[in-house]
Amino acid sequence: MNYADFQFLKFDLTPPGVMLVTINRPEVMNAMNGRLHWEVSKVWGVLHADPNVRVVIITGAGTKAFSTGGDLDWVATLLADGELAAAGMAEASDIVYGMLECSKPIISAINGVAVGAGLAVALLADVSIMSHSARLADPHVNLGVAAGDHAAIIWPLLCGMAKAKYLLLTGDFVDGKEAERIGLVSLSVPAEELQDRAMAMAMKLANGSQMAIRANKRIMNGWMKLVAPIFDRSVAEEHICFLSGDAREGVAAMREKRPATFPSTL
Q1: pLDDT by residue (tens digit) across 114-158?
Q2: Is residue 15 part of a domain?
Q3: What is the CATH number of the domain that holds 119?
Q4: What's the pTM?
Q5: Residue 145 neighbours by CB under 8 Å, 6+ apart
Q6: Is 258 within the bounds of a domain?
Q7: Other CB atoms closer than 10 Å to residue 14's CB: what's the count?
């Protein structure tokens, strides 16, 4: 693949090798349809192989959202088609491992709401910079499915087991200041400073020792690779949940803007 093959990711290269990647579906708050989810699973290999790229910044188009995760129409197709669901789960795994294996440091500029697969990209970045007013959550439980996108591999490392369990069991949102306070993100800044701070960090990394910076990324990512079997289990559990009545009820409730009544509670 090359950059022209991507429909919903926008690329802008700034010397000396900072690639700004923008998730570009602002009309739906950068929610992921099947094509975008697939693109996010593939882009890390392209960036890894590009000798002109030293550092990656990823952000969302517009001011409202980084990415609100899978859009409900796409999620509904996964519920109705086991093969599509399996492919989606494989892509979720590819996003995580693709970001870990990409040799270039990745910075996320979290400019708005980040949920689901979008949140996976935001938090798996090597440096995550979040607007004070942005909000993030992993609300898989509200859909009636396990958190299989990324949380099992990194949340306990970022914010500790107690906070990770609390947020994943409730699906509650936190804003940028709270996310920084508990360690979910590297830094929280005023919204008007976000892009400048991300670019300043990218320039610092792009002008540093590429050998040392990439080596440190590989070393630190070893911690996440230690718990890879736990993540793999989470992806499998999410796939199983997608085949359940709870997932169908969760999607229906979100579409109808009402509280869910999960079959497993009856």
Answers
A1: 999 999 999 999 999 999 999 999 999 999 999 999 999 999 999
A2: yes
A3: 3.90.226.10
A4: 0.96
A5: 238, 241, 242, 244, 246, 247, 250
A6: yes
A7: 14
Residues in a beta bridge with 14? 18
Q: Look at the chain and report how many structural domains it folds into.
A: 1
Taking only the tens place, the pLDDT of each residue in 204-257 is 999 999 999 999 999 999 999 999 999 999 999 999 999 899 999 999 999 999
Three-class SS of 138-155: CCHHHHCCCCCCCHHHHH
Residue 195 lies in a domain: no
CA distance 152 to 147: 7
Position 63 in a domain: yes
Q: List strand residue ranges (DSSP E) for 15-132, in order.
A: 18-23, 55-60, 65-67, 106-110, 113-115, 127-131
Q: Which domain holds residue 39?
A: 3-190+201-265
Both tokens assigned to 260: 């869910």
The answer to which of 8-12, 71-75, 99-103, 160-164 has the lowest mean pLDDT is: 71-75
Cβ(40)–Cβ(117) below 8 Å: yes
CA dihedral for 115, 44, 151, 180, sign (positive or negative): negative
